[in-house]
Amino acid sequence: METVLSVSKLTKNFGKLCAVNQLDLEVKRGQVFGMLGPNGSGKTTTLGMLMGVVNPTAGNFTWFAEPASHHTRKKIGAVLEHPIFYPYLSGRKNLELNALIKNANPANIDKVLNIVELSGRQHDKYKTYSLGMKQRLAIASALVSDPIILILDEPTNGLDPMGIAEIREIIKRIAADGKTIILASHLLDEVQKVCTHFAVLKRGTLMHIGPVDEVGKGEEIVEVQAFHDDLGVLLQEFIGSATIKKEDGQFQVMMKEGFHSADLNRFLFECGIVASHLATRKKSLEKQFLEILADAK
């Protein structure tokens, strides 16, 4: 798979403050890459360096195996801050101006309006748009030049749950169209739902990087309920049980490697017990994220 972004020892100091500390990472074509971290972790500074609006103190990066240049940036669309639109012009007119500035094909406007679900409001003035609609128009403006890569900095910041869900579906739609997406966010649930890969930053230092689908790998917890007085004792006799604890009337069974809920269910059935509730629970991204940050203290 083609590497579209390669970052090596990228560093940014603001006086005595090290905002980004020798960052190494790679992004492959087609990935939806999430940069996770609490406020002040260096996410926005990193994106600023990648887009040429912040000068690195040290280190380097390449786009498409080439040093950053006007040529490579033409292949990238970005929403780093709230972009400036003309409030008394319609959404469509704002995009037409945007396309003119970027020397983009105006024929792309209908497509991007459809992607961000603003076709029905395209002729309404920008000042009448909700915050979610304004954010969707910003994404449309980044897509109007048909970039290979889309960069989004906190794309759901300040939105209500419905607005967050709308942006999430738009990101999925853009990714399904084959574009590579790099987004910074502190919303763990959103990253887990839309990203294929993620990195965790803390105080400018890379703490973890890997595929989202490997979150919780190797750890399986099975929730069990059954009408049996000695269920806790019985669960201890199951050879696949690593640890057992009771929580809110349910037993939480940490499984040994190689054992799964089906094995536990079979064991209970052989003991003459039918579980009233049996569900597998993987470690969440939130739990792994907090563990990564705790280990970094």
Task: Give your account of this protein's structure.
The chain has helices at 43-50, 70-73, 91-102, 108-115, 131-143, 161-176, 188-194, 231-237, 261-270, 285-295; strands spanning 3-14, 17-28, 32-36, 58-63, 66-67, 76-79, 149-153, 180-185, 197-202, 205-211, 220-225, 241-247, 250-255, 277-282. It is of the alpha/beta class and 297 residues long. It has 2 domains: 3-213, P-loop containing nucleotide triphosphate hydrolases (Rossmann fold, 3-Layer(aba) Sandwich), CATH 3.40.50.300; 220-291, Alpha-Beta Plaits. The strands form 3 sheets. Strands 6-7-8-3-9-10 form a 6-stranded mixed sheet, sandwiched between helices. Strand 12 (241-247) and strand 13 form a beta hairpin. Helix 4 runs antiparallel to helix 5 (131-143) and helix 5 runs parallel beside helix 6 (161-176). The two termini are 35 Å apart.
Short account of what is shown:
The protein has 297 residues and is α/β, with parallel strands linked by helices. Helix content is 32%, strand content 30%. It folds into 2 domains: 3-213, P-loop containing nucleotide triphosphate hydrolases (Rossmann fold, 3-Layer(aba) Sandwich); 220-291, 2-Layer Sandwich (Alpha-Beta Plaits), CATH 3.30.70.
